[in-house]
Amino acid sequence: MDLISYAELAVLLVNSGSALDSLEDAKRLLTEAGREKDAARLTRADLAILRELRRELATVFAAAARQDEHGAVERLNALLTRHPVHPQITRHDGHHWHLHLTEGGRLSGEYAAAAVMGLTALVTGLGVDRLGICQSDPCRRAYLDTSSNRSRRYCSERCASRANVAAYRARRRDAAKVPSTGA
């Protein structure tokens, strides 16, 4: 079972923005994330639960970004209590038997159990500091730092590039302001 991919469900949800405003937008988000079967099962009741879960998961990432390890873990523990995980053996799409995590029959329950358990496994295996909020203004999207040296600071190459260009331009501006001392 690849729990990192489950943690990525949490990131997808936290970063969903207005995609949870309507059922159609949420289905499009899931389809674009390669979760077409989930998109087909999504209901309006699921959507309301996913909005609340998004808010709760965002507080975990915010605590981690503030380096509030205990706060992040407390929030994850509360989510584990609210969304108990039930492992289930399954086989589909030509894959061998493998584990899925579920909370019940609803898509939102499965999504919650998987996202919460994925983040929990990542935090207990790699540390709270592996949960991040993009440092590129005004982005503030969540990300998982799975780098070997814990060096990730941005949600994407685009944000990293944008921040580097902004820093370069600021250095050039500052250098242009410094009067030259001619001899």
From TrEMBL:
Annotated InterPro entries: ABATE, ABATE_dom_sf, Znf_CGNR
Coiled coil: none
Occurrences of domain Zinc finger CGNR (ranges): 130-172
UniProt-recorded name of the protein: CGNR zinc finger domain-containing protein
